[in-house]
User: Fold these one by one.
Assistant:
Number 1:
Amino acid sequence: MSRYKYKVCFLGDTAVGKTSIITRLMYNKFDSNYQATVGADFLTKSFKLNQNYIKLQLWDTAGQEKFRSLMPSYIRNSSAAIIVYDITNRESFNSIDYWIEDIRNERGDEAIIYLVGNKTDDPNNRLISIEELEKKAKQNNCNFLETSAKVDHNVNLLFEKLCTSLVSKF
Ligand code: GTP
Ligand code: MG
């Protein structure tokens, strides 16, 4: 049995659901009222996976533009970055390029990156297909997944995959 500890930062435009995904993971709850994250929040969560104990230090960063200059300092210390966008919001998908650029500037090719399309519970307003996500992920050497924090779709799977990626790389 081995023990591992990793820092992971959540990035992405405002209101895409970063805090909601983490709240679903930690407390199995969902709040439809939006409360913007200020700066960043820090939480830890432990996982047991294949006889390994894995402790993740999660940095839930603020997507609002006014906090943007703080992001490199969170990215710098992280082994993995989860870039979240909203599948009903084209602009949040386009922003992935900027977030990847920030990560590459700080970490080169070292960091594991997951692209996560959130809000799959709202298919009528979907603007980004899974094929488009897959294409962007392949172009940028990233992993990818779609989730819904609201109806608890793929949230646990995201963290399982993330832990597996972290243990096999670091
Ligand atoms: P910042 O802290 O400003 O960066 O935003 P955030 O990315 O943390 O977004 P947050 O989790 O606060 O969610 C923003 C809004 O989207 C809230 O009203 C949530 O209830 C809603 N939301 C989050 N996840 C989902 C989801 O999976 N489906 C739906 N329908 N709404 C969601
Ligand atoms: Mg937030």
Note: Residues 18-19, 37, 60 surround magnesium ion (ligand 2) (CB under 6 Å).
Number 2:
Amino acid sequence: LPRVLSGIQPTAGSFHLGNYLGALRQWVALQDTAEAFYCVVDQHAITMDWDPAQLRQNTLVSAAQLVALGVDPARSSLFVQSHVPEHVQLSWVLECLARFGEASRMTQFKDKSQREGAAGSSVGLFTYPVLQAADILVYQADEVPVGEDQRQHLELTRDLATRFNGRFGDTFTLPAARIPQGAAKILDLQSPEKKMSKSLPPAGCVFLLDDPKTSAKKIRSAVTDTGREVVADAENKPGVTNLLTIHSALSGIPVPELEERFAGRGYGDLKKELAEVVTDFVAPVRARTQELLDDRAELERLLAGGAARAREVAAATVATVYDRVGFLRPA
Ligand code: ATP
Ligand code: MG
């Protein structure tokens, strides 16, 4: 079976539709055909300002949500990144192979450092893609299900693996990004020139744990484009196209069929129907997440089991790597 690794930050507590349609939906689907390792990347979540109590709670809520969405801890290893210290152990070696210049080209750092400026941002925010490379390479993953925005980080991961293999002998599997067609990039409802993100104001971002009234309102208030025809046209009608993409991804109805269905009707009808499609999807996820959180001991037990399985694989990789780079083995 191919091995799959992916991670998601617990920063906002709730995931959003972009996370689900771009990444998490594939996590669930791949469990049937791959050996899957899925983690809540709490260490990535401290690269920007954070609150410790909130982080702990958000980590639990994130894990519960993954299970509620269909990640099955019996079939996949579901764990918390900081429970597997091998990620950071490998990360240091990769940091010493990564070049300052290539890390400087990462557009995510450019985006995320805008507020504080590069000089005021943490070094961790800068080296984040290298830790991400370690997350992936430590499991010898073949595939990484992610959204479109992660393509560049995956390229860096492959470059670092190739460099290590070239210098120290074949050690790492080269991972391929697995980016879904159609819904690889869900756009923000208020600024459809940007990707939907928890880091933008919440009005444009549909969180899975929003109460249904809030999600419906966000969709009804989505920025649409001039004109009134419901047709997909990413260039000239990014707002309407985004709504059609979300509808199609959740309902399974192809976009051309939706265009036919809404022919001669306005944006308002599309929004009204989409609000229903979205609330029908999120309501059970919300309820199930709450149930899982009500039994915290059981949830923590599941995560401990996932971390134990993950460590077996990760520890073997780190042992080989430390040997090959010349670290003296502890007696
Ligand atoms: P931030 O904006 O703070 O980076 P995020 O919302 O991108 O947060 P991440 O934890 O960085 O969340 O990403 C988790 C996964 O969701 C990644 O695989 C990423 O590619 C995917 N993803 C995030 N936003 C979108 C989006 N708008 N459309 C499609 N996929 C997305
Ligand atoms: Mg992101």
Note: Strands lie at 3-8, 35-40, 77-80, 143-145, 176-178.
